[in-house]
Amino acid sequence: MANRDEEILVDSGDDYDSHYVATDSEVTSMRSSIVDYVYENGRRYHAYHAGSYWGSNDEKAIDAMEICHHLYGLLLHGRLHLAPIKNPLRVLDVGTGTGSWATDFADLHPGATVIGTDLSPIQPSFVPPNVYFEIDDCCDEWVYKSPFDFIHVRGLYGCVADWGKFYQQALKNLHPGGYLEQAEMSVTPVSDDGSTAGTIYEIWGQKSLEAGDQFGKTLRIVDESKQRMIDAGFVNVSEHRYKLPIGPWPKDPHLKTLGRFFRIVMEESLEMWAMMLWTKILGWSREEVEVIFARMRDALNNPSIHAYLEISVVYGQKPEI
């Protein structure tokens, strides 16, 4: 794994022979209206609080989420979290997506009750008996009757308008001594050798960040979460930063594997990430955005571009009484 301050060495071999082609608030019960999805620009979006989240939830998006969950497992060498939690009895996974993290955690901790929340009911039906999924918007008031020992958050960039309120609610809903952990990803691909300069990656990052700002839900939380946790009152706050390569260009075998998987995630996720924000928020036409997607796919498969994104994993503890 490459930490933030370590330069990733480039492999002189050729791992780009074959171009990868992607294949074709009160808690609300899962009633029919929630699955009355919204369809726009060929993608499917959540119906509950429609328009409040930019990502699609169709099968292609679900596949990308599953690969991304595996990717985080590789990045953290099989660990589901970094926070030093002990014997958690109640756990909350905010923005659970496909529910894979919640399910894996429930398997490892059969004595814990794990609740996963999301805007979309895309979680599986057959899960461990100690995991439950609820349709909920984390931007609404949290109405849980009992506090949690651990709250897990991953990939909520562009989802929250008031992060100060979010962290305050997380703090309020933790037992004293409980932990909040948040993993987030940057948006703009960068490089150690300058190979991303002047490429489509710069346009992608600039316009995506601009869209998030106009949407009122920042995509910059990867660089803000540590300080925001401290400001909210969390103690023992710790941040771990990682470089996540795009493509199999690194020399290090572990980073090369990460890069292979992440290139797939990027290819699968371009439309999921950007179609709504770039068309509805920035005002681009679908055809204009698809040109950007084509240029991005070319860059993703260009072995001379040694790009990576940054991952931030931050955890903090609610003070003991």
Automatic annotation (TrEMBL):
InterPro entries: SAM-dependent_MTases_sf (IPR029063). GO terms for molecular function: methyltransferase activity. CDD domains: AdoMet_MTases (cd02440). Pfam families: Methyltransf_23 (PF13489). It comes from the Eukaryota. PANTHER family: ABC TRANSMEMBRANE TYPE-1 DOMAIN-CONTAINING PROTEIN-RELATED, METHYLTRANSFERASE. This is S-adenosyl-L-methionine-dependent methyltransferase. It comes from Aspergillus oryzae (Yellow koji mold).
